[in-house]
Amino acid sequence: MDTKYKDTRLSIRIDPSLKSAAQDVANNMGMDLTTAVKMFLTSMVKEQRLPFTPTGLPTETLQALREAEHHNDYKTYDSAEEMWSDLDV
Question: Is the pTM of this model over 0.70?
Answer without folding.
Answer: no
